[in-house]
Amino acid sequence: MLLLIRRLSILSVMPATSTVFFRHAVLFRFGRFNFDESQLMEIEGLSLEEIRAYDRLKRLLDVLVGGLFFIIFSPLLILITLISLITGGRQVFISQDRVGKNGSLFKMYKFRTYGTRDGRNEITVLGRVLRPLRLDELPQIVNIIKGDMSLVGPRPELPSFHKLGSDNIPGYSLRLLVRPGLTGWAQINYKYTVTVEEYRIKTAYDLYYVARRSFYLDLKCLLKTPYALAVTVFERENGQ
After folding, report:
1. pLDDT tens digit sequence for 26-55
2. Parallel, antiparallel, or unpaired for β 181-183 and 150-152?
3. Closest by alpha carbon to 223, among 156, 152, 175?
4. Which of 22, 132, 183, 200 is the residue whose CA sits 20 to 30 A from 226?
5. Which pLDDT tens digit goes with each residue over 149-191?
6. Contacts of 133 (CB under 8 A, 6+ apart)
7. What is the DSSP annotation of the chain?
């Protein structure tokens, strides 16, 4: 009987133990890297010519994986669309001008999460659920399949933010050598930016990715994204 109790006790802590092991032994070690934000000024001297062989492979992977994601998430896309129609009426989707590869503009798709009430823009009830989980960005799978975006890359910026970066950050335009991404090195390793200095640091992460992009680095970004998203949601819930 004592032996059985001991075995049950061990089994009861297995889920928590497995989670801790996966977080620290896999995610942390797999995602760990050496990066000094001062490299921003040095990175301009690196060879940032397109790695054409990998970029062609990456485009193929974007189409294949993007198509697979579209099939997997289509029930969720349909569900969100129906809920949005019922609770908020038409205009389920919105499109925004964003700066893409080589500075070209494209329309980035999102679920509408804001509405007008008493002449003011307010987040919708559905938006309160979608935005923290980044589910409002699911329609960008279409942008990936079309070739406007990639699964991994620098975040596509609004033209106004692009101008801010170009005017104040040396080497900023080098981030446009690749397609912008649904997720990326800067998104999973740095916080939401408010000041120009924070934006400069975030750009350093983007340029780090551009200079060293590879299948291995893309895989690290994809594997760390769910964990980084979970941390962001947890911090918001705790008011951090």
Report:
1. 444 444 445 555 555 455 445 555 567 788
2. parallel
3. 152
4. 200
5. 999 999 999 999 899 999 998 888 889 999 999 999 998 888 7
6. 229, 233
7. -HHHHHHHHHHHTHHHHHHHHIIIIIIIHHH-----TTHHHHGGGS-----HHHHHHHHHHHHHHHHHHHHHHHHHHHHHHHHHHHHH-S--EEEEEEE-GGG-EEEEEEE--EEEETTEEEE-HHHHHHTTTTGGGTTHHHHHHHTS-EEESSPPBPHHHHHHHHHHSTTGGGGGGS--EEE-HHHHHS----SHHHHHHHHHHHHHHHHH--HHHHHHHHHHHHHHHHHHHHHHHTT-
Residue 155's contacts (CB-CB under 8 Å, 6 or more residues apart) are: 180, 181, 184, 186, 187, 206
Taken as a whole, the chain contains a residue count of 240
164 phi, psi to nearest 5 deg: -60, -45
Q: Which of 38, 37, 167, 91 is nearest to 157 (CA)?
A: 167
